[in-house]
Amino acid sequence: MLEFGYLSLTTIMTCIVLFVGNKTINQTYNKEAARKKGKYILFGALLGWHVYLYVLTKTEAMYTLDFPPRFALFTIIPLFIFSGVFVYKNQKFGWIQNLPSRGLFLFQTMRIFIETLFYFSVAKGILHVNATIEGYNFDMIYAYSILFIGIITYSNFNKYRHLILWWNHLGLLVIASIIVVFQTTIYLPEIYGDIEPFPIDFLQYPYVLVASFLMPLAVFVHLLSIAQLKHSNS
Fold first, then answer.
1. Angle between helices 2-28 and 32-57 (to 10 degrees)
2. Single pTM value for the model
3. Which of 31, 102, 115, 166 is the most buried (most CB within 10 A)?
4. What does DSSP assign to residue 194?
5. pLDDT digits (tens, 9 = 90+) for 55-93
6. b/e per residue, 146-164, with b = 16+ CB within 10 A?
7. Which tens digit of pLDDT belongs to each residue from 195-205?
8. Residue 209: closest CA among 46, 85, 84
9. Minimal CA–CA distance to 228: which of 111, 220, 48?
10. What is the rounded distance in angstroms from the CA atom of residue 21 to the CA atom of residue 17?
11. Gap between the Cα atoms of 167 and 194, Å rounded
12. CA pair distance 201, 128, nearest whole angstrom
């Protein structure tokens, strides 16, 4: 059931990205050829990445926590670089303004489900307790705050653009703190005292989907929302 949870959440988020992406492409481009090209690129990129992750996790060389972190070097870091460069180069393009502003912000509530999966992963021995709400990961608190801020800003989203912008930056800081917790728990466990080693099983599929797809996707959406808010004419 735990594996099903990871796969289900990943599938749902992928479908949401495809749905919103297709809708945005239709709103942005008038020519059918341009629409088809955009949709093919979007679908191909998502499918290609998922296939790449699955194949990569079957590679024995990736199944290690030795430094340097091979899995991060081949998945997380490239995605972060891509997200930053892609959003920077496209920040003034019209398609970003066609993305649903509220949707980009509320998308981060998926982290409630991620942290719930993390909680049950500890019980199964898949994840270290440090990486959950019982340890030093406070992402669940941030994710619930999205619902609270969403209710406050729903009736007049543009009025609270600066608040949403600030909350997006806060979300990136929270993700950065989670990465620090993960890395220090793996490579500097002594700073936490006498603790259990980080379970290597977290590098198995589908558990790696959080670190190598869902978490980078949250970062990507944060960057899109920030770019949209900064260049909005509203």
1. 160
2. 0.94
3. 115
4. S
5. 999 988 889 999 989 999 999 999 999 999 999 999 888
6. beebbeebeeebeebbeeb
7. 999 999 999 99
8. 46
9. 220
10. 6
11. 35
12. 10
Number of DSSP helices (H) and strands (E) in the chain, helices first: 11, 0
pLDDT at 155: 80
Q: Which residues contact 227 (CB under 8 A, 6 or more apart)?
A: 87, 90, 91, 96
Cα–Cα distance between 226 and 104 in angstroms, integer?
Answer: 10
Q: How far apart are CA 128 and CA 130, in angstroms?
A: 5
Quote the CA–CA distance of 2 and 29 in Å, as a whole number: 41
Q: State the Cα–Cα distance between residues 70 and 61, nearest whole angstrom.
A: 8
Euclidean distance between CA atoms 21 and 93, whole angstroms: 15
Residue whose structure tokens are 């972190």? 69
| Look-up of token digits 């289900």 | 8
Name the amino acid, one letter, at 85.
V
